[in-house]
Amino acid sequence: MDQQKIDIKNIPVHVEVHKPDSSHSGHYNPRDRIYVRAVKGLHQAIRRYMGFVFMGLFMLLPWLQYDGHQAILLDITEQKFNIFALTLWPQDFTILAWLFIIAAYALFFVTAFYGRVWCGYLCPQSVWTFIFIWFEEKIQGTRNQRIKLDNDAWSVSKFFKKAATHFCWLAFSLLTALIFVGYFTPVGPLFIQFFTFEASFWAVVSVLFFTLCTYGNAGWMREIMCTHICPYARFQSAMFDKDTFTVTYDEKRGENRGPRSRKDKDYKEKGLGDCIDCNLCVQVCPTGIDIRNGLQYECINCGACIDACDDTMSKMGYPPGLISYTTEHSLNGKPTRVLRPKLLGYMLVLVAVCVAFAWTLYSRVPLEMNIIRDRGELYRETNEGLVENTYTLSISNKSQHTVQFDLSVAGSESFTWIGPQQVSISAGETRSVPISLALDPYSTEQRSLDIRFTVQQADNPDVKLAQSTTFFVGR
């Protein structure tokens, strides 16, 4: 038995814990607040202009009127979405599903091609965060002034600067919340009723909830949303490959880092690269990372570090592009394949989904019909000796106007129609129309007949809907 034992050897294990070093003030301490430095450049100009355009659309769209009603109103209580001339009902869920699928594959396609640019340029979290940082800069000053202000003891000046900053944050958050809730309830009455304390309980709760969310996310959480909460930051790297354009530091050109004079033209002979280790790329980063450490999931591809580095390179007389949108293959001297299987796959699926969405929208009929048979009896004989079947046509007008509909039936036999053959239905209304069909039982030898009811808009024959059912003869 002793020969079957396995000797156990103790291996000493030493675990070294690295704690954040607060002595390096020029580097980002993950436990400290990030003071984002203002930067100008091509990419930041594009980001600001795009943010301005889409922020303007967000603020203005609820106020647009179309044909006497709010152009975009997603009325959840009434279970209908008005989007200009289009009204979507719960039965039109397929259209909304197509929209979400299109948005998802468009995001996948852009990410595979140009990295996480959605996060840096159009994500609401980033847009609102940069707006809040703008308020900080205008009230509290530059990055160094904000750091000094936070380190100073409390004074009247510091109190008023901090109070003014948070007041602007809360005011802008309240405006954001009112506009956002205005997409789901009439925006004009909402503003009036909210400030006159006449708004409904749920309207007030919704506005206050989204106000606190905006204030907390853009004012306090900021990069925490991007690095710890947003799921996109976690799985977006699965769409990257060596041909994806991302914000990248050219290590071969930049290393070794080190300060030097602008007049020093022999720095390469001293073993230095083009990076002067100014740390501006870290100071302008909204998530506080050092792009020189390589590709990191926290990077939102906003291009701020590119603009800061290019400005430094220009002042030093060096060529730009030490930090740039490039690919791993390009950095390694290999050609970048733009058209590759992954990107083509995303593009083909996106095109197919867009075609399906367009066809669903084009073939959509703004009415709905359900045929309900009389549950009491399949058929009955009249005093005239005819066989009568009773139906109820449930017709829904899914348009935004009152419409006149013509009702008809088609089959292999001639039926006697008993009931209205034209009905007027208001916008969004569902009308139950009881009708009966009568037939001479000796006109056919079949025990049942296939018939087809048709509902057609009186002034537009192209808008029609047909549905089949059965007529029981009973012989």
From TrEMBL:
* Gene Ontology MF terms in the entry: 4 iron, 4 sulfur cluster binding; metal ion binding
Q: Which Pfam families match?
A: Fer4_18, Fer4_5, FixG_C
All copies of the 4Fe-4S ferredoxin-type domain together span 266-294
Membrane-spanning regions, if any?
Answer: 49-66, 95-115, 167-184, 190-215, 343-362
Q: Which InterPro entries match?
A: 4Fe4S_Fe-S-bd, 4Fe4S_Fe_S_CS, Cyt_c_oxidase_cbb3_FixG, Electron_Trans/Redox, FixG_C, Helical_ferredxn, Ig-like_fold
Q: Which GO terms describe its cellular component?
A: plasma membrane
UniProt keyword list: 4Fe-4S, Electron transport, Iron, Iron-sulfur, Membrane, Metal-binding, Transmembrane, Transmembrane helix, Transport
| The protein's name in its UniProt record | Cytochrome c oxidase accessory protein FixG
Q: Which organism is it from?
A: Rheinheimera pacifica
Q: Species lineage, top-down?
A: Bacteria, Pseudomonadati, Pseudomonadota, Gammaproteobacteria, Chromatiales
